[in-house]
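Q&A log
Question type: sequence-to-structure
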Amino acid sequence: MLLKFTKMHGIGNDFVVIDGVTQRLQLKPRDIMKIADRRLGVGCDQVLLAEPPGRPDVDFFYRIYNPDGSEAEQCGNGARCFARFVRQRRLTQKRVIRVETLSGISELRIVDRHQVEVDMGQPTLDPGSIPLHRPQREQEYWLNVQGEELSIGAVSMGNPHAVLRVTDTDTCRIEQLGPLIEHHVDFPHRCNVGFMQIVERNEIRLRVHERSAGETLACGSGACAAVVYGRLRGWLDEQVTVQLPGGKLHIAWPGEGHTVRMTGPTAVVFEGSIRL
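Response status: OK
Response body:
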């Protein structure tokens, strides 16, 4: 099968995006792994698949695959790229696009030629729904990681996140702690792990170890989770600029009972095809 694709990125978080609306596809985990392989395939942090909607109130179903072939619930940077992709491919002319993922429905708004705003929905804070093995919701949770007690925040943005406040993201031990926290027994579905340095009340630096992918240049849902945690602790204002290794995202969250909105750029790298 010869598969057409578009390579895209959102501030360095890169994706292979596939039109499953006009192409008839049945991708298996081994196909995803081949596509995502940076030496033997195209190479990407995640593979995104546009499918016809499964319900009348949305425009597309949007699947997100990790490099190991597993399916993720949500991806903020991917959602922005997805919005630009379906417009570029003329699958829709709408400027406000409703998509369904495994985590629910998101609304994507085209701001201009490069910027896309994503309504990421309300954060989930109940530990049983994140999921995190804790009997009740707390401001912070303590994890024992190889004998070291770590204070974390736990948030789901449709996918589970642990957030640690650090003094300096340059020395935050992400290579060591990221995989250990991702696979911690208290996160039964594993988790993404964010390391947040607060610069000002309206600005943070962030590095994210993503579940199944390792550290990436950017993570949209991770940026949202970090701002939510910082807001709940009283550290951050309603609108925050998040500086990631790949660039900046703008996150707005008024507080509990409201949705999180993320705005950032997208870019097309190239188009091509791969034989599976």
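Response note: The first helix runs from residue 29 to 36.
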